[in-house]
Amino acid sequence: MTEKLDLPQGTLDLLILKSLSLGPQHGWAISERIHQVSQATLQIPQGSLYPALHRLERQGWIGSEWGTSDNNRRAKYYELTRAGRKQLGVEAAAWEKLTAAVALVMKMA
User: Fold this and answer.
1) Distance CA 1, CA 22 (A)
2) How many CB atoms lie within 10 A of CB 77?
3) How far is CA 60 from CA 40, 41, 85, 102, in A?
């Protein structure tokens, strides 16, 4: 059984932007992709995912349009905007810097 991990604030936005960097996806597919790639460690509840998607859309980092999913259901597809691609670079660099700093502190003798 996999232990549930709480994401640090702001991490969900980074994960969504990264997932969308691979191409347009609907909300459930974003959540599933993150779950699969994290080897079932990260489970994004709908109550967190959709508010984050709406927030990212308001910020202009993602856009959306309605389409049909693989199972013929109407779904809202999200994709990165140019500003979102730039923001992904900023957030990824900040994440790398943060995790490197935390790793240094954790190796402290």
Assistant:
1) 29
2) 19
3) 30, 29, 11, 31
Token code pair at residue 96: 């790398």
- Domains annotated for the chain, with CATH where assigned, are 11-106 (1.10.10.10)
The predicted structure's pLDDT at residue 17: 98
C-alpha 39/C-alpha 43 separation (Å) is 10
pTM: 0.89
pLDDT tens across 53-82, in order? 999 999 999 999 999 988 899 999 999 999
Site of tokens 């790639």: 37
Amino acid letter for position 54:
H
The token duo for 23 is 């191409």
